[in-house]
Amino acid sequence: MDSHIRKVYVPMTETGFYILLCLREEAHGYSIVKKTEQLTQGEIKISPGTLYGSLSKMEKDGLITLIRKEENRKIYRITELGSQVLDMEMKRIERLYNSMKEAR
After folding, report:
1. Mean per-residue pLDDT of the chain
2. Does an H or E element contain 66, and which?
3. pLDDT: which is higher, 1 or 94
4. How far apart are CA 55 and CA 77, in angstroms?
5. Stretch 95-104: mean pLDDT, rounded?
6. Which of 4, 25, 63, 84 has the most CB atoms within 10 Å of its CB?
7. CA 99/CA 102 separation, integer angstroms
8. Total Cβ atoms within 10 A of residue 28
9. Chain centroid offset of residue 77 CA
10. Dist CA 5 CA 58 (whole Å)
11. 3-state class of 28 per DSSP?
12. Per-residue pLDDT tens for 40-87?
């Protein structure tokens, strides 16, 4: 993983995190929005502008890939690089959580 990817994506925004988390399975934009709302009990609502801007950037950076088009929908999936970035972020969050528990 090159330094550009590390610098841009770690730590991740919540939007980026949930997009990659959702794309461990093939999905289109609207399903990512709905899954994120479900996972966060409605706390995080990704706007279309934010979503499609993030998807475009992540695709350019090689974190996700366009699998196919169905009607007007683009179906994406996380790449190996995207999985590495997500794993790195999950470990970072877990470390933060464990530190918080110890500090109580």
Report:
1. 96
2. strand 64-70
3. 94
4. 10
5. 94
6. 63
7. 5
8. 18
9. 10
10. 10
11. coil
12. 999 999 999 999 999 999 999 999 999 999 999 999 999 999 999 999
Residue the block writes with tokens 């609502």? 45
CA 61 to each of CA 30, 57, 58, 78, 79: distance values in angstroms, whole numbers, following the listed order: 21, 6, 5, 12, 10
Residue 39 in tokens: 């996972």
- pLDDT higher than 90, residue 99: yes
Strands 64-70 vs 73-78: parallel, antiparallel or unpaired: antiparallel
Confidence of residue 104 (pLDDT cuts 50, 70, 90): confident
* CA-CA-CA-CA torsion sign (41, 22, 98, 92): negative
CB 70 within 8 A of CB 28: yes
